[in-house]
Amino acid sequence: MSHEDPIPVLQAEGLTKRYGRRVALSEVDLRVPAGRVVGLVGPNGAGKTTLLNLACGLLEPTSGSLRVLGSRPAASAAHLARVGFVAQNTPVYPSFSVADHLRLGARLNPCWDQDLAERRISRVGLNPGQKAGRLSGGQRAQLALTIAAAKRPELLIFDEPAAALDPLAREGFLVNLMEFVADLGASAVLSSHLLGDIEQICDYLIVLCEARVQIAGEVEELLAGHRRLVARREELARLPAGVETIRVEHEAVYSSAVVRTDLPWSSVPFRTDPVSLEELVLGYMSRANAPVAGVGAAALGGRR
């Protein structure tokens, strides 16, 4: 592998996971490049947690393959040390003190950075002697983030870690997350239904809906390749070849559509306007699952 073509942090081929008759992931193909902060978005039940648990080695695929940092997930203790994971609700041990968590982290992780852990604990105002069960939600999230980052991993994975936090605590958590990513030079995958969080910190987007990846790519490139246009309903039927309609909403006379193309936008004979990240995500969710069509931003937590 050349320097110009680094090993992807996640690579899935035909990845499928079933729970009995329920399909959580279906034939997922995905290649996430290194060095990105990835936003994984989609409605509840889309398969986001399943994908992240597969990436951490907590689940085995039903079929297909998944490689994390070039290897099978949790292939060895050394590989586990390369991945930091913060699960939903940022679980910690209630009877352990903050210092106990750091001591446990040091025993379990060969690359543990005690100086980093203590520095961050001090910075966010955590008392080393405080029992984790008596911490606020925001403090527990900061403790879980510190433990994951003090492993000095190459990949940080977060499964909606800030969803239950109040806006101030969530803002502090995201700021610290980005500082850790920068300090470690790590890649990160953040699952969230809060589009404002994704827009604030992520430069790569994966939309997962109905057990399948609907779209994935660099946020800037995705936004540049999609536009919103308004035209009479009959005119939308005459869009040029190579222009794909992602979502359309009809009014009495005019219709509004989110479209994508690889053509120059100057070749599209309609006025087009840039789309927001919210419009792009909802467009693909609507296309994947018709009942989602027409819902507002509240379906994904909206913008902050």
Provide an overview of this structure.
- The protein has 304 residues and is α/β, with parallel strands linked by helices.
- It folds into 2 domains: 10-219, P-loop containing nucleotide triphosphate hydrolases (Rossmann fold, 3-Layer(aba) Sandwich), CATH 3.40.50.300; 225-300, no CATH class.
- It has 10 helices and 13 strands.
- It has helices at 48-55, 77-80, 98-108, 114-123, 137-150, 167-184, 195-201, 219-224, 233-236, 277-288, and strands at 10-19, 22-32, 37-41, 63-68, 83-86, 155-159, 187-191, 204-209, 212-218, 226-232, 243-250, 254-261, 272-274.
- A 6-stranded mixed beta sheet has the order 5-6-7-3-8-9, with helices on both faces. Strands 11-12-10-13 form a 4-stranded antiparallel beta sheet. A 3-stranded antiparallel beta sheet has the order 2-1-4, covered by helices on one side.
Notable characteristics:
304 residues; alpha/beta; 2 domains; six-stranded mixed sheet; 31% helix; elongated
